[in-house]
Amino acid sequence: MHDTLSRTAVPETADATGPELLEAGFRLVGAASDVPMLEGRRATVDGQRVAVFRLPAGFAAIDAHCPHRAGPLYDGLVADGCVTCPLHNWRIDLASGRVAGQEQVVGVHEVIERAGQLYVRLGASACDRGGDCDHAGEPAAGAA
Amino acid sequence: MTTSTDILVIGGGIAGQAVCEALRERDPELTVTMVCEEPRLPFDRVSLSHLLVDGKDPEALQLRPETWYADQRVATIVGDPIAELDPDAGTARLASGAEVRFGRAVLCTGSEPLMPPLPGIDLPGVIPFRGPEDCQTIRREAARGTEVAVIGGGLLGLEAAYGVASQGASVTVVHLMDRLMERQLDDPAAELLEPALRELGVTVLLERQTRLILGPDRARGLRFADGEQLACGLVVVAIGIRSRTDLARSAGLACERGIVVDDTMTTSHPRVLAVGECAQHRGMVYGIVAPIHEQAQVAAETLVVLDAAGPDMVVEHGELLRDDGDAATSATAVATAGRTLYEGSILSAKLKVMGVDLVSIGDADTSGAPVTADGGHATSAAVHDRESGIYRKLVVRDGTLVGAILMGDTRGHELLLDGVKNAREVADPLELLAEASQASPADLPDSAQICNCNGVCKGEIVRAIVDNDLGSTQEVVSTTRAGAGCGSCKPTVTELLRVVRGGQVEEATYLCPCRKQTREDLAAVAREQGCESVSELSAACGAGRDCGACKPGLAYLISEVNSNQHREERHARFINDRVHGNIQKDGTFSVVPRMRGGVTTPAELRRIADVAEKFEVPCVKVTGGQRIDLLGIKKEDLPAVWEALDMPSGYAYAKSVRTVKTCVGQEFCRFGLGESMKAGIELEELIEGLYTPHKVKLAVSGCPRNCAESLIKDIGIVAIEGGWECYVGGGGAGTIKKGELLAKVETKDDVLRLAVIFLQYYRENGEYLERTMPFVERVGLETIQAAVLDEESGEPAALLERFRIAKAACDPDPWKERRAPLHPKQFAELDSEAAPIGPPEGGEVEAERAAATATALRHPALAVTHVSGRSAEESPDA
């Protein structure tokens, strides 16, 4: 249903080793075993905070904070490929970054598990984003 | 790309949706395509003010779920407006370039907010009150403390202003006229409305003509015609609507203020109909919701009749004609087909503002037109009670009812609306007023409209209840749509249900609303299949799979069914229960250590002070439950803070037993009749660590002066001369209510035992997120007394035994996870090293936990052999 798996299997990185992933712009964020099933954890990639989740079908990564009141999305409840922000229950699709019922879109990032380690590469639009951008851009990876 | 459809509905608002539904009620075969300009499926714009007040997810306002469109085979095109309409050719071109060929089209393009051409109207900070985005802006600005001005004192303006005030922001309504809602109200009613609004925090400025909006960079205030100024940071314009007719005009259709339609809702082109705020019928453009449904019914009827008559048929001037112009005995054909014509709507308006009950029906104002004895036929009768804010008026013209205003007391408004619609003859208006205030839904005629949003009559509701054997309000709402709009008629729907079912109403509350599963359903599944975790329950019946919002409720259910010997899954717990702190607006957590009975020691206070300094805690606050709260702790610091505090978790973050508040009682107080501190501490030890359907706050007072506020607690204990009282179901927050006296008993141990048994009864029978106040109201005190007091039935002892088992397996101090985290990075970030607190020393955690529980369970109040013949006798009130 969600393209989490297809996103992790980007052709250029399908067989890449850890060092090759780093070469391709990915960053090592930690051990896959440290993200329990259907939970999220925060990490920092190239100075940007991201939230990494473990879903039944693999891993997903989006911006760490909710576009509403900057709630910590990594602390949200996860179900059906979506995370619900713990502050005011905004619901965000982890594959597309879309906020249910809202115009806003949260940045989506690529995440790959390789040899028990998690690697994250910021989505295209995330890299261009300025500090005070309102995160209204289109979903970065996954949709591309 | 070209697609084809029999009926093309242009516009995805309430009108477009109403047309689709009215069509499908009549004809399952016609192909229907709805084109929505906005990037979403139709939502309930009428309830926009709810969005503003309670911050509801706009998704909740969606009129129908996506599956409805698939089930009903209504094709939808979303976020792609129609750019060009050619009625002669029967084609429409979308903005994306795609083309749709249609048999007939219905324009439901609605309206846009009227923005007056004032200087500064385009400045940032000037918005209409129209869509979810506007609600978000208002909420955001209100949260910042921005002063808000609302231009327009009509229905919409007042609802917007109320929404702003409900967010705690200062708001001023600026109105051009000399009274509010001048189209619906007369002077006396408007005069009552103003103070009611003022009480809600809304300032009203009348007779102010706004000349310009002050800038320069963004809206900074208003200047009125008299030179006076009003400073503000956000201007909400709600002065009215303008029909959207651009598409109709460019298609060559006749338009005045709206798209001109006849009594069959057909425009000047026989192939095109129009419905809703974009349509002008007999010179009227309706800006409220009820007429939309009436028009949609007529439009659907017209379309179906045309379809049945064959592809060549058209309607012209209300007559059915063959396309070549050959008259085909039009009037007869129309009559045979049983078609209803639209003859205009009675206007009725209900102000959806909390605490202000106001309904205006039809032509309600006679003040503007002076009544003369002979020529002016309008007379009115009113009951006016300024003190209690009640005003009820009827307007009668030529002996028939034409309008009414009900303010402060809206009883009987359905009866009066029905009377206005059917031009009820009125000999004595005062008598009718009296009748209306006695009217219950049972007395209403079947034709009386109950839900003005969705146009549902009493007869339809009654039929739906009988035919489908409906038992709950929730079911009636989803079957009939009555109450699915603004919701203000829901109490009437419930009342009707009660009348039809002879008082038997089972209000189903779903624990998992997505799958329509109640707590009982799910508990039965969990018991039968032996589910020991939320995942197993989800796998068994799907609960919690969809939106996941019910997962914490499922987690509680699983723990309760398994007497806390379940398999804990943190993904099903709210973040508070994963890291054992209460999440704050900035994502930090608060830390409240256990301080039983509100009694502490110098050593504890010293440690708390040291922690506050060492971790630079931003705020140290005494809580309402007589404890100390350390606010603003980062998640990663929680383990170290707990270690330094060396006190157990106070569970201040969970739906669980919180704390027992006490007064000093007999030990110090000269009025004390019982040892309230001692009893409170013992009670807290007995029950701490237990999860409950909702939070449970307790108190023990040493005498009936009730300094610990026992009467407004979930469980409140009061020492009296010669015994103890136990109150349950009190509340002192959103709704204030004195608890019900469960029983009077003789000894402290008796009362603690009773409190524990009641707690267990609530744990087993409460709905998730149902506090004890609504719980006691729902279940009834007598039922509860029978269960917890009747020792001979054996039930109290059984409850006590189940309590002991659950308590023995609960976790009295989850803060021990600082040394034994459930996951290595439970508190730390993924890419950082967790600060080691030190290993759990040789099973110390488990041992301590067992010891603490064992101590609590040895309390005499929990002795299973406990003989307490007194409790049942001592409650003569039962």
UniProtKB/TrEMBL annotation, chain A:
Gene3D superfamilies: Rieske [2Fe-2S] iron-sulphur domain
UniProt KW keywords: 2Fe-2S, Iron, Iron-sulfur, Metal-binding, Oxidoreductase
InterPro entries xrefs: Rieske_2Fe-2S (IPR017941), Rieske_2Fe-2S_sf (IPR036922)
Cofactor annotation: [2Fe-2S] cluster
EC code: 1.7.1.4
SUPFAM superfamilies: ISP domain
Domain Rieske: 27-120
GO terms assigned for molecular function: 2 iron, 2 sulfur cluster binding; metal ion binding; monooxygenase activity; nitrite reductase [NAD(P)H] activity; oxidoreductase activity, acting on paired donors, with incorporation or reduction of molecular oxygen
Family classification: Belongs to the bacterial ring-hydroxylating dioxygenase ferredoxin component family.
The protein, known as: Nitrite reductase [NAD(P)H] small subunit
Organism: Patulibacter medicamentivorans
From TrEMBL, chain B:
Source organism superkingdom: Bacteria
Pathway(s) this gene product operates in, as recorded in its UniProt entry: Nitrogen metabolism; nitrate reduction (assimilation)
CDD domains in the record: Fer2_BFD-like, NirB_Fer2_BFD-like_1
Binding sites annotated in the UniProt record for siroheme: 707
Annotated FAD/NAD(P)-binding domain residues: 6-299
GO function terms (MF aspect): 2 iron, 2 sulfur cluster binding; 4 iron, 4 sulfur cluster binding; flavin adenine dinucleotide binding; heme binding; metal ion binding; NADP binding; sulfite reductase (ferredoxin) activity
Free-text remark on how the cofactor is bound: Binds 1 siroheme per subunit. Binds 1 [4Fe-4S] cluster per subunit.
Broad class of enzyme this protein falls into: oxidoreductase
Cofactor(s) needed by this chain: [2Fe-2S] cluster; FAD; siroheme; [4Fe-4S] cluster
Pfam families on file: Fer2_BFD, NIR_SIR, NIR_SIR_ferr, Pyr_redox_2, Rubredoxin_C
Domain Nitrite/Sulfite reductase ferredoxin-like: 583-646
GO terms of biological process kind: nitrate assimilation
Keywords: 2Fe-2S, 4Fe-4S, FAD, Flavoprotein, Heme, Iron, Iron-sulfur, Metal-binding, Nitrate assimilation, Oxidoreductase, Thioether bond
Domain named BFD-like [2Fe-2S]-binding: residues: 450-497, 510-560
Keyword presence, rRNA-binding: no
Nitrite/sulphite reductase 4Fe-4S domain ranges (all copies): 654-794
Domain NADH-rubredoxin oxidoreductase C-terminal, first and last residues per copy: 349-416
Enzyme nomenclature, EC number: 1.8.7.1
Reactions this protein catalyses: hydrogen sulfide + 6 oxidized [2Fe-2S]-[ferredoxin] + 3 H2O = sulfite + 6 reduced [2Fe-2S]-[ferredoxin] + 7 H(+)
Binding residues for [4Fe-4S] cluster: 663, 669, 703, 707
Family membership: Belongs to the nitrite and sulfite reductase 4Fe-4S domain family.
Function: Catalyzes the reduction of sulfite to sulfide, a step in the biosynthesis of sulfur-containing amino acids and cofactors.
Full protein name: assimilatory sulfite reductase (ferredoxin)
